Amino acid sequence: MSLLRRSTQRKKPRHGRARGVGRGAPSWGIVAAFILPAFLLYTVFMVWPLAQSFYFSLFEFKGLARGAFVGLRNFRELFTRYPVNEQLPRAFLHNVYFFVGTMLVQNTLGLLFAKLLYKPRFGKRFFQTVYTMPYLISALVVGYLWSLMLNPLFGPINRVLKAVGLGALARPWLGDPATALPAIILANAWQWVGFPMLLFSAGLANIGEDLREAARIDGASRWRLFWSIELPLLLPVIGIVTVLTFIGNFNVFGIVWAMGGVNGEPAGATDVLGLVFYRTAFRGGVDAFGLASALAVLMFVLIFGVSMVMVSVFRRWEENLR
């Protein structure tokens, strides 16, 4: 009895509290310690520059020296001041074209690869790694590599076309206004195809096998199973991928700058809003800083507004399918 009594006394927790109680709920101090670094970085590099852009867009500038308050004059001059007023509509249409082309190529291939790699088979992890590695590379590096491959003199793409008897298709891909932007879209899709593939793979994994098995018992073919079961259940993922693709393609700069230059060559065929902003800010003259800030604000409002509309539309579609 004395040994039992001593053993029981040793097991009593100190301060009258059982060990482990409260371990599942970390203190706010620990939570703040993990969140604070990311919050500070996001504030310094995202929120603060955005707020500065709003502020600068309301003033005139002489170089980097802030001048008088001008209200919305910079926004008005975006559509009245040469050459920005001529470049903006063209660049906006190119961004729309860039987004639609990327949606059709990148996200369609991402869904196809996710479907092909869905079932566990030999080499699945290897191919997933291969498809996702390019978007870890800088867009400038990717653009430079594709510029070399598309070079009309020594690029491997034209050489392969000539070697297989398709020499008539060989051309200066980045020097022809008809093919320059599609070539950059393909290069951009090659870089980012792994991102939608991962999201679609996760979406396919979340679909219950009982639904697929019930459809097979009812005689559904593979195409019918995909079209009637899997694709509708992937709608939330499709919505996320579409919104992220829109945001990324209306912010595109690096790969277009690397492959088409700062002026969107040839003859402005690859000009986008990011390039117009860059030229306005750094080549538009000593009084163009406020104008460039106004363009940045306009791009933010456009991207944010359209993204919210897309989210609302996809939510409504998702609710209708329930």
Structure description:
- The chain has helices at 2-11, 28-56, 73-77, 84-116, 124-132, 139-149, 156-163, 180-192, 194-205, 209-217, 222-233, 235-250, 254-260, 273-283, 289-321, and strands at residues 59-62, 65-69.
- The chain has 322 residues and is mainly alpha-helical.
- It has one domain: MetI-like (MetI-like fold).
- It has a two-stranded antiparallel sheet.
- Helix 2 packs across helix 15.
Q: In summary, what is this structure?
A:
68% of the residues lie in helices and 3% in strands. The protein is mostly helical and 322 residues long.
Q: Specify the CATH architecture.
A: Orthogonal Bundle
What is the succession of H and E elements? HHEEHHHHHHHHHHHHH
Helix content: 55-70%
Name the strands of the widest sheet in spatial order. 1-2
Task: Looking at this protein, list some descriptive labels.
322 residues, mainly alpha, MetI-like fold, two-stranded antiparallel ribbon, disordered N terminus
Secondary structure layout:
Blueprint: H1 2-11, H2 28-56, E1 59-62, E2 65-69, H3 73-77, H4 84-116, H5 124-132, H6 139-149, H7 156-163, H8 180-192, H9 194-205, H10 209-217, H11 222-233, H12 235-250, H13 254-260, H14 273-283, H15 289-321
Antiparallel strand pairs: 1-2
